[in-house]
Specification:
Blueprint (H helix, E strand, L loop, with lengths): L1 E5 L4 E6 L6 H19 L6 E3 L9 H9 L5 E3 L11 H13 L8 H14 L2 H22 L4
Parallel strand pairs: 3-4
Antiparallel strand pairs: 1-2
Helix pairs in contact: 1-2
């Protein structure tokens, strides 16, 4: 399993998780990786952090930590059972496509991790920016399909 994040400006850390993500394990990622990335990329405190409603993300300990650090960056909370509105899914599709199109595909978990990190670092900032710019259109489409309940 992998945890990741990105911003308008750049790709953030790609963290390899050896076990299933729990609220407590997620709490160990937030200060070391999220907080440091946000303080560098959004030193003005105007950055926004968005995550889905996975159980570890919405755990009591993670929610408390995010509330305690609300002056460092904003946390965009997704409504329960909301449709996917995260650009990270598009990024993972692009990574999968890049890995599948390699002349030498990875054959071991170590090879896959190495290739994944390489491809992650190769994603250009303009690609991220296009995904972010498209998000309002994506949300309008979701509202048209699902109605105004979101």
């Amino acid at each position: 399993m992998v945890w990741d994040m990105c911003s308008w400006h750049d790709m953030g850390p790609l963290i390899r998780l050896e076990t299933t993500l729990t609220g407590d394990r997620y709490l160990s990622i937030l200060p070391d990786h999220l907080h440091s990335f946000m303080s560098i990329v959004h030193s003005d405190g105007l950055g926004q952090f968005k995550q889905d409603n996975a159980t570890p993300h919405s755990s009591r300990v993670a929610t408390k930590w995010l509330q305690e650090h609300s002056s460092d960056f904003r946390h965009f909370h997704c409504p329960p059972k909301s449709p996917e509105m995260n650009i990270i899914e598009d990024i993972w599709d692009a990574l999968l496509h890049a890995i599948e199109n390699r002349s030498l595909p990875p054959h071991t978990p170590v090879d896959l991790w190495t290739v994944l990190k390489d491809e992650w670092c190769e994603l250009p900032p303009r690609y991220l920016q296009k995904l972010v710019e498209f998000m309002p259109h994506h949300i309008v489409g979701l509202l048209c399909v699902h109605g105004m309940r979101y």
